[in-house]
């Protein structure tokens, strides 16, 4: 049963038209019912909330974007908008990462209560780690958990060669951050957050970084800003203290690999499978690479009318993905080395 405080919060958010807070409180009630063992009720509440959010978003999405565009249409080219239904439970995460994300969600759900005491919830996050380890999925899961839109920043449209234009576009994005609550996701953040003063640096990028630092520091909105990078060593040191939290992602261990396998092989799970043997083969691969290998095995089983995935096929697909990944890593390392040599000349 919802508490008196939750009922009051629901009514206040409804009266003020704050749909995001209304859905957030409703999700808290659903979570509370789940903890009490009322699983069926919790699931029904969550489904109702998801349906309501989807309908509301579809009806209002275009109106929100138009109201933000100055000039009309320009901001839409800088932000890609989605309304994810992902949850943290859909991900296989390291315990430390999972605890950090749950803490962020809890603080966001009690945003108003924390602000009333002069404190600020965590809302500026830096995600670091190799490609395919769950950084982008985290942004989607946080948006899904909080019931707010996910705005992905299009760096290809943001960064231009014209002096001052990129900083002006960045200002539009931060205006949107202040006007519409959501998750604002800067992927491949090192493109604008690299260290100032590098030999191959250009003046415009330095100005953009300085602008970003100032805007990030002065932002006191209700939105969540997430920056993700595969190269934290390339980031300017001044950035780190501007973020409330830095979360480190890595490759899955044996137990996590087995969890991924069992989760994704549902319906095609073999009667006998040397889970540990398969997991050892997958060590050093990212979540994304392992998932792709499993999907390839599933497609092969479907094509040949098999009722389960065979161990030998799964191992072969994992080895193929590992080989492709190794080639890509070597290629990228070679390009980085060449770029470093060129910059030092």
Description:
The protein has 345 residues and is α/β, with parallel strands linked by helices. It is 60% helix and 8% strand. Strands 1-3-4-5-2-6 form a six-stranded mixed β-sheet, covered by helices on one side. The longest helix is centred in the last third of the chain and has 34 residues, at 311-344. The chain is globular. It starts with a helix and ends with a helix.
Number of helices: 15
What structural category do the secondary elements indicate?
alpha/beta
Binned, the helix content reads: 55-70%
Query: Which strand order spans the largest sheet, edge to edge or round the barrel?
Result: 1-3-4-5-2-6
What's the Cα radius of gyration? 22 Å
**Which range does the strand content fall in?**
5-15%
Order of helices and strands: HHHEHHEHEHHEHHEHEHHHH
Mean pLDDT rating: 80
CA-based shape: globular
**Biggest β-sheet description:** 6 strands, mixed
Number of strands: 6
Kindly report how far apart the N and C termini lie: 69 Å
Q: Uncertain regions: pLDDT < 50 for 5+ in a row?
A: 61-72, 196-201, 339-345
Short description:
The chain is α/β, with parallel strands linked by helices and 345 residues long.
What structural keywords apply?
six-stranded mixed β-sheet, disordered C terminus, 345 residues, alpha/beta, 60% helix
Indicate the topology:
Layout lengths: L3 H13 L2 H17 L3 H30 L10 E4 L12 H15 L1 H6 L7 E5 L6 H12 L3 E4 L1 H4 L6 H15 L3 E4 L3 H4 L9 H16 L5 E6 L7 H4 L4 E4 L5 H11 L10 H8 L4 H17 L7 H34 L1
Parallel strand pairs: 2-5, 2-6, 3-4, 4-5
Antiparallel strand pairs: 1-3
Helix pairs in contact: 1-2, 2-3, 4-6, 8-10, 12-13, 12-14, 14-15
